[in-house]
Design goal:
GO cellular component, one term (chain A): nucleus
Distance between the termini of chain B: 30 Å
Family (chain A): Belongs to the methyltransferase superfamily.
Keywords (chain A): Acetylation, Methyltransferase, Phosphoprotein, S-adenosyl-L-methionine, Transferase, tRNA processing
GO molecular function (chain A): S-adenosylmethionine-dependent methyltransferase activity; tRNA (5-carboxymethyluridine(34)-5-O)-methyltransferase activity; tRNA binding
Largest sheet of chain B: 4 strands, antiparallel
Helix content of chain A: 10-25%
Shape of chain A: globular
Strand order of the largest sheet of chain B: 1-2-3-4
Low-confidence stretches of chain A: 164-254, 257-403
Strand order of the largest sheet of chain A: 3-2-1-4-5-13-12
CATH class of one domain in chain A: Alpha Beta
Number of helices of chain B: 5
CATH topology of one domain in chain A: Rossmann fold
Largest sheet of chain A: 7 strands, mixed
Mean pLDDT of chain A: 62
Number of strands of chain B: 4
Number of helices of chain A: 11
Structural class of chain A: alpha/beta
Oligomer: heterodimer
CATH superfamily of one domain in chain A: Vaccinia Virus protein VP39
Number of strands of chain A: 13
Largest interface: A-B, 30 and 31 residues
CATH architecture of one domain in chain A: 3-Layer(aba) Sandwich
Strand content of chain A: 5-15%
Protein name (chain A): Probable tRNA methyltransferase 9B
Low-confidence stretches of chain B: none
């Protein structure tokens, strides 16, 4: 289970941040005033760590304290370093600090990226471990309860906000290649320290997760996708496998500790029109390319799904076509026979045309109708952004529009009281001082108790 | 990576516990970065410093004029504070390694950034 959780986080947190770091713009990431205030209130000479610092926007808030930035994402850390910050690459679950060395820690928009309750607790306990008694920890997580949006589920995949990246792809015009899809999405829902704009990048990037992505990265078109998928499919981290894992992650409505080992998984139906796929800019390629096993392939159909339970809106349900990735399904589900049944509890990525979806537009029509997009972007992207007019303009999506599923980020959005409950029940070494809501985030300040480990 | 940072770092290789501190520093590239002197800031750091680890690291880097420990009245001793300021904040290891004293595991420092990630294998229970 923990391995699956790590895999999900790798794919939908780490790889996304790593791939998109070059396109990061600090303009996009807000520095929360209350966080700044917390930092400024620390005693001069304090040793402070920002765990999940991203590009380091909080690292220079207070010149009277020593602030270390830590992030799992190398490229983001490099950016912070280039701004003159003291930073390192490390894992929240295994902080490389001696016990009781730090006076304060901030964790802004990090814990919500852990996909199981146990991992979230571990992350908090690790931070508590390295705090001195009396030291304070501030945690911000994205709230499920939003003013302008409605999350159907707590575990969600959120598409990338591409608005800021479109200029990077504006000039891609190789002969025979389609336009990069410049598909503006709504601004990011939350502004975690690592928040980055989304890019209309081919999902194929995911299959190169072991490589770092340089600024020379080029947008990949469907054609390229096709080509690479066939190569990718044979690798452990091949596109199809990666895709499969992502598919898998779509089909679970709850965090992995609740649903992973259940038998209820999505049914994936065979792809009907692979040619359509190849021509479309949907980045997901039919698994016929891949070296997956050769059972019947089924497209994923959400038609029979609980339509009111999903965060994402499906455009053309009949035409949903998903390559099957039985290998990866197996990987996650244990006894998978190459088929996934639908999770009857509703999956956080089931297609649904919910009335709460305030996203623009009708279906995106790809070239061949059978290759239309499977999912449109979801409404609940914005927790903190106060610009309701920033919605994805689906009408901008042309046939070559890249699938917004590229760079989907996983979040476990927190219910009111959940974070508090987590600390109260599982992290005895911390005493909660304050808790509240700040711009669509649940936030807590807790103190390390004396005489604790 | 500054030596003040090094002073906080510990190996988290499984099973190593407190024996993972301090990390043994080796540097192939070091830079001196001038940092504005803030005596109050430095004075407040002094009680938090793990001296043995600091001296070991400073020795590896062949630094001179490193105080061996806090001296009486250090809060007002400008010379002492400036020396500590230099050692803790101005010496920047750009390239090198940090080694777990217990397991021998090496963590790289590149472009001033230590990478403390363990591999999947190393983090498995």
């Amino acid at each position: 289970m923990d391995h699956e959780a790590a895999q999900l986080e790798k794919q939908h947190v780490h790889d996304v941040y790593e791939s998109t770091a070059p396109y990061f713009s600090d303009l996009q990431s807000k520095a929360w005033p209350r966080v700044r205030q917390f930092l400024q209130e620390q005693k001069p000479g304090s040793l402070i760590a920002d765990i999940g610092c991203g590009t380091g926007k909080y690292l220079k808030v207070n010149s009277q304290v020593y602030t270390l930035g830590c992030d799992y994402c190398g490229p983001l850390v490099e950016i912070a370093r280039s701004r003159g910050c003291e930073v390192m690459v490390c894992d929240n679950l295994q902080l490389p600090f001696r016990d009781q060395g730090l006076d304060a820690i901030i964790s802004i928009g990090v814990i919500h990226h852990f996909s199981t309750k146990q991992r979230r607790i571990r992350a908090i306990k690790e931070m508590a471990r390295v705090l001195v008694p009396g030291g304070q920890l501030m945690i911000y997580v994205w709230a499920m309860e939003q003013k302008n949006r409605h999350f159907e589920k707590q575990d969600v995949l959120v598409p990338w906000n591409r608005a800021l990246c479109s200029r990077l792809f504006a000039d891609s015009s190789q002969p025979g290649r389609k336009q990069p899809c410049v598909h503006p999405e709504r601004s990011q829902p939350y502004h975690p320290p690592c928040s980055v704009c989304s890019c209309s990048v081919c999902f194929q990037e995911q299959c190169h997760s072991q490589r770092s992505h340089s600024l020379d990265y080029e947008p990949l078109m469907a054609g390229m996708c096709c080509a690479d998928v066939s190569k990718g499919g044979e690798e452990e981290n091949g596109f199809s496998n990666t895709l499969g894992r992502s598919f898998r992650s779509w089909f679970f409505s709850r965090s992995l500790d609740e649903s992973t080992l259940r038998k209820q998984i999505e049914r994936v139906r065979p792809l009907k029109n692979t040619e359509g796929w190849a021509q479309s800019t949907i980045s997901i390629q039919p698994s016929t390319h891949a070296s997956l096993d050769s059972g019947p392939q089924e497209p994923f159909s959400t038609r029979e799904q609980n339509l009111d339970e999903d965060v994402f809106v499906e455009t053309s349900q009949k035409q949903l076509e998903w390559p099957r990735a039985p290998a990866t399904m197996k990987h996650l589900c244990g006894d998978q026979q190459g088929e996934v049944r639908r999770n009857g509890d509703g999956n956080f990525l089931e297609g649904a045309n919910t009335s709460e979806n305030d996203m623009n537009a009708g279906d995106v029509e790809e070239g061949p109708p059978s290759a239309s997009r499977i999912l449109r972007r979801i409404s609940a992207l914005d927790s903190t952004d106060s610009n309701p007019e920033e919605t994805i303009s689906v009408e901008d999506q042309q046939p070559h529009v890249l699938d917004s599923r590229a760079f989907m980020r996983y979040y476990h959005v927190f219910r009111e009281g959940e974070l508090y409950g987590l600390l109260k029940e599982h992290v005895a070494e911390l005493h909660v001082l304050t808790s509240g809501n700040d711009h669509g985030n649940w936030c807590i300040i807790a103190e390390k108790k004396d005489n604790c480990d | 990576m500054k030596l003040l940072t090094h002073n906080l770092l510990s190996s988290h290789v499984r099973g190593v516990g407190p024996r993972g501190f301090p990390l043994r520093l080796q540097a192939t590239e070091v830079r001196i970065n001038p940092v504005e002197f803030n005596p109050d800031f430095v004075a407040r750091m002094i009680p938090k410093v793990e001296w043995a680890a600091l001296l070991e690291a400073a020795d590896t880097l062949h630094l001179v004029e490193v105080p061996k420990g806090p001296i009486e009245g250090y809060e007002h001793d400008e010379k002492f504070l400036r020396q500590m300021h230099h050692v803790l904040l101005e010496v920047d290891v750009l390239e090198g390694t940090l080694q777990c004293p217990e397991s021998g595991r090496l963590f790289p420092i590149n472009r001033g950034i230590p990478n403390m990630l363990l591999s999947d294998e190393e983090t498995k229970t």
